[in-house]
Every structure is written in structure tokens, then in C-alpha cells.
Amino acid sequence: MFIQYNNLDINFTIGSTRFRTLNIAYEHLHRIIPSHSHGDNSYEIHYVASGRGYITVGEKTYEITPNTLYMAGPHVAHAQISVQGDPMVDYCIYLRLRRTSSGEKKTDDLDRLFTEKTFWIGQDNCQIKNTLELLFRELKEQKTGYTVYVETLLRQLIVQMIRNYQGGKKALHHFKPATPAEAQDFIIEESFLYDYPVLTLEQLAERLGLGCRQTERLMQDIYGKTFLQKKGDARMSAASILLTYSDRSISSIAEELGYSSVEHFSAAFRKYYNKSARQYRKESRDMT
Fold this sequence. Notes:
Elements: E1 2-5, E2 10-14, E3 17-29, E4 33-36, E5 42-50, E6 53-57, E7 60-64, E8 68-72, E9 78-82, E10 88-99, H1 110-115, E11 119-123, H2 128-141, H3 146-166, H4 184-194, H5 201-208, H6 212-223, H7 227-245, H8 250-256, H9 262-273, H10 277-287
Antiparallel strand pairs: 1-3, 2-3, 3-10, 4-9, 5-8, 5-10, 6-7, 6-9, 8-11
Helix pairs in contact: 2-3, 5-6, 7-10, 8-9
């Protein structure tokens, strides 16, 4: 079997380097690949999923077994041959690189880490096979967004290749924590998601690093609701779920949702849904 994609314009950038994918191939390798080398800025990644064989690089010979990964960079002469009766199943990605004037920030110099190796061979420890299988599936099926997915998978392949080089070395750059101002929406959503029974305006304001009045204005800007309205929505949503899908008493539901009494809960529920909690439970269960 031989599958090849060599007429596609697939480009992606890592750091200050533009990667252009000129050939993507999958082959049951019955033929001999004679000694050859690639030109300036050209790199070829091979992954052998199954089968056995040998690769010669200059005067050295390396045995290839399933899960062998190797990369040959510019001007590295190499040849490949399968063991008779057990042909290699070989994935091959051919790339040409070009430096750009400006690059992405905080990439751990991944492009440099990739290009500093002109040859590497070893067993894959980063599940490259899964990435390659997804890559060929996307190229075959061409579903919505496949061009973005293919570029993403190729970028992932470069990272996996580098991780194999480095053997678990830690990253140099990390994500910065978001400031309260940058994470305001999430802080509010998380607060009402987890703490809605007991959350106070003062507590939410403290989490946001704002005053109570500023917090109320922010609630209006984001939701068009006051703090108490938003808290009431969360409580009533939880109440409707508990009434429908549990056998808990109305008094225990009221207690869980932070109401001071079952009467307080019942009054709030009737005002919100225009019916009693008991009636709501009966009607919702009749419908399920």
C-alpha cells in the first residue's frame, strides 16, 4: 500500500521559522530506498509502525524495529531497506524550513531545537503513531476544518519529535497566571457555579479585587442582572433539578440551597416559577 500527499500547500510557523510540508506519505516498504540526501533547510521524519529493516547513514547501520523514529536533516546521506518477509510500514513527512523576520513568542525556541539535530534515531516515547494516524484520516476525509486540524497535527508532530530528542527535559517558558481583571468572567461564573447557596456580594467583590458597587456594575454589564438576581437564578435552577430528579424533602432542599427556612424558600420558589415547589415536582415528574 502506498498513500501520498505531495501537492498540498501546508504551511505553519513555529517561533521564527516557517515550516512547509512538501510530502506526506505512508508505504508498505517492499522496495529499497537508495542512499540519498536532502538539500539546505530540508528535513525528513520517518516513523516505522511495524516491520523490520535497516537504515544506513554514512558508514553506520542502524536496525529498525517497530516504533522506530528517525529524522534526517540537510545533506545527511541515508538509505533504507526492509528485512525480507517483514516489510516496514513507514510514515514519512518531508519538510522545508525558512526563517522569517518575526516569530511567535514564548515557544522555547522550538524551531532551533528541531533544526539543531541533523540526524536522530530511537524509539518513539511520545505516541507519534496516534498523531500520524489522525493526520492521514483528516487528509482522507477532509471534514470541516480539516486544514486547521492538519496544521495543528503537524505542529504537534514537531513538538513530539523534539521531546524524543530531549528525553523529558522541562520547558523554559510557562503560561502566566491571569490577573483578576483578565479572569473576571470566569471568577464570577465559577463563584455562582460552586458557591451559589452561600455566596455574598462582599465575597464575590473580594475575589474580583473590586468594591461592592463596582461588582454590581460589572454584573449589570455582563449579565444585565443584579447580584441577587444572578444568585436567585442559580438557586432556582438547582431547586428545579432536585425537585425533579431526587426524592429529597422540600425542607432539605431549602437547607442545601442556603435558605434560612423552608417558608423563605417556598416563597422565593413560587415567585420565580409562579407555582409551589410541590406542584412543580408533581408536574415535572408527570412529564418524565
